[in-house]
Write a structure and sequence with these properties.
Blueprint: H1 14-20, H2 26-32, E1 38-42, H3 50-58, E2 63-68, H4 82-98, E3 101-106, H5 115-119, H6 132-149, E4 155-159, H7 176-186, H8 190-202, E5 210-213, E6 234-239, H9 244-247, E7 259-260, E8 263-265, E9 268-270, E10 273-274, H10 276-283, H11 285-294, E11 298-302, H12 312-326, E12 329-332, H13 351-372, E13 377-381, E14 387-393, E15 402-408, E16 413-419, E17 423-427, E18 434-442, E19 445-453
Parallel strand pairs: 1-2, 1-12, 2-3, 3-4, 5-6, 6-11, 11-12
Antiparallel strand pairs: 7-10, 8-9, 13-14, 14-17, 15-16, 15-18, 18-19
Helix pairs in contact: 3-4, 6-8, 12-13
Length: 455
Amino acid sequence: MKFLSACALVTVSFSFQMGLLAQTSSRMMLWKQPSFFRGFNLAQDIPITQKDLLDLKKIGATLAYLSTEGFRDPTPPYAEDSANIQVLDERVQYCDSARIYYTIAVRQGPGRNDVYLEGDGQAPPSTIWKNPKEQELYGSMLRAITARYAQDTLCVGITPTVEPNPFFDSLCCVDSASFATFFARNGVNFTAITELWVDSIRAASRTIPILIQGPGYSNPIVYSTVPIINDPNIVYEFHDYHPTQYVKAAQNAAVSYPGAYLDMVNDVPEVPTFNKRFIEDTLFDYISAVQAETHAPIFMGEFGLEYPHTGGTQFLSDMASIAIDKGWHFAYWDWRRPSGWGGWDYEHWDPSYMAAIDESFIEQNESVAESLAPAATLSFTQEVPGSIRVDWSGLEPPGSTVSVQLFDMIGRLERTFTANSHNVLLPTSGLAAGPYLIVLRSGAAQATAFLSISR
């Protein structure tokens, strides 16, 4: 891809941006497909090669979730971090070469330390939550990151900040009411800060999907505090490592799944039996509520198992199948962690672990094929210069009206037609060469396909 140089962008108001965002982007349409994106996290501190991305694509993954430690230092004078920029540039190029979609997760920046470093005592608590100057500087960094990659058609999202944890030294994995109380007492408007960062991204791209997380490791137990954003190109993301006594148990621990583990669920301490039904119906109840309220896509952006334990393959299968049943997108933590770097190293465990992961990706290929064009076929013929004939069948009863829309790969609506037959002549004069998304709708039925225009 050709990288865009970071440039100064004028901040526009959030309300004004809403008027420009009436159209859902073509990339967002992929998020609207149930469980379309399935893949792995790629942590910045882990060495990654081009082969690693090609191998990820080979096993059926559609998404690489790229972490970055940010383009600016967390502490004054907030200098540009060229090493972080270089690492992310390289990984984006690997994704482009492998032809795999990617999202970018920003973990730190002005006033904001990586939540893992905070929790591990390697960094002091972030100061950004009560510092408007740092909030603005962080927003300008997000604008620069967005401007650099948003034109790449394989870039399908930006996470403004990973696992936002205001008052990390006071609050960790507590209930949502405690978060709300601390926010109010300390004058932190978490929703307003999130809206500021959404607005900053929108100044660089009107349509790039933005992945919004809630506080407290973005875990389901406190997800009722997630900021609900009025924007048609929002995805709500959560992370889940429950039951923590199983997921993060030591390598030599005698633990198993299903099993009884102490956890805070629905704000009540209890020792539930963690199994698929409990996770889906109780632990994920908050996530389902957000989905029902917003009708937005849901992304289980981190989950997995640090070390192999009894029932581990069943645990991974249960988590993935819950997401698939609910139409959520998901990404395992994490891809290709070298042996000796800690856990999460599925490829070097019993082969049943990778078999379970492969199965979740195989199901993805089948479900995507069904969801893109249920019982419908599309074909394209260039009969005369400057136009393409689009034919379809199996989409609608005879005589129905069909809406035909053509989007470029950054979400702009380029052509729109209605037809009462099974074909339409699509003028292509004035369109740049490259890939486009064509969307056909008839009542509740929909079919989508990618169309390449050449010159």
